[in-house]
UniProtKB/TrEMBL annotation:
One of its GO terms (biological process) is phosphorelay signal transduction system. One of its GO terms (molecular function) is ATP binding. Keywords: Activator, ATP-binding, DNA-binding, Nucleotide-binding, Transcription, Transcription regulation, Two-component regulatory system. PROSITE patterns: SIGMA54_INTERACT_1 (PS00675), SIGMA54_INTERACT_2 (PS00676), SIGMA54_INTERACT_3 (PS00688), SIGMA54_INTERACT_4 (PS50045). SUPFAM superfamilies: Homeodomain-like (SSF46689), P-loop containing nucleoside triphosphate hydrolases (SSF52540). The lineage of its organism: Bacteria, Pseudomonadati, Pseudomonadota, Alphaproteobacteria, Rhodospirillales. It comes from Zavarzinia aquatilis. This is Fis family transcriptional regulator.
Amino acid sequence: MGAFPGASASVSGNDMSVNKVVAMPTQRSDGASAIFVDPVSLGLEAEIERVAKSSVHILIRGETGVGKELVARRIHALGARQGRPFVAVNCAALSESLFESELFGHERGAFTGAFVATAGWFEAADGGTLFLDEIGELAPAMQAKLLRVIQEREVTRVGARVARPINVRLITATNVDLEQAIADGRFREDLYYRIRVATLRIPPLRDRPADILPLARHFSRHYAAQPGGIPFTAEAEAALLRHDWPGNIRELENVVQAALVGLRTPHVTPADLTLTVRRATAAPEVVPDSLGLLSGLVDDLLAFDTPDLFERVQELLVLRALAACHGNQVRAAANLGVTRNVLRTLMQRHGLLKPTNREP
């Protein structure tokens, strides 16, 4: 793009592929898709499909590199605005001095260098979806201007006297603790409630290990010079599964891409993988309250009218316990605090028990 200095954005219409088996369009324009198969990702897909059918503003939360733009594109592709523009803007790249001209546009002669009238990102996304990544990095003055546009549903170009109506679905994303930022006076509470009509939390890659190898193979197919990609040895796959992926999907993509550069063997081996080991002392400054996070997730789920919510959560809980214990029912039951008989009853209830071949 590059229409505005300092802005990082991309625009796409109906040029993305949507594959079932939980496929999310990537940030590239070639239509490639990243496959997610972990039970946690399947649960997230169900939430994505639910919110995509609505028109409410959505806040996506998760660590850096976890795939927030992928989810935003997936929502757009499944919603009523598919085929209309999808515009992604990195808020961290928006300078305060050019914020209004970049987001809202400007008229000719509005400032030095404004030789032609130019539409901003809101107008570029009119009728479609505007994705504002790293919303937590916006300065307070910019937050106030953004809030007004969201409330009034119109933008006024720099140097203009007449406002232009806009019809945009807003999706925002952040890895910042916005509640703490509000308490610290760094983020406006009124803006927070405007963008947080619905919330999606994307778990880190280490919490959905079944996605690691499918994603690695996907990136191999994308970056390898040969069709079908370059396979990984069993030892390389084991190394990928052992890694905790602090940089999430973005780190995995970079590791695979680097491994393929100058590769002279028919397989990717552990020696080709550049895996950075985190220091033992590098503990997070703040240990999250697990029950507090769970309460927040429950609040978000209850905000939707989902008659079968209890059944869906119960099934997901059983699936995750079994996945964490590699299918061992005794261990899974112990982790859930129930007996194996209770677990098997739940598995049967949700169709998770394989039929036996015993004679009646």
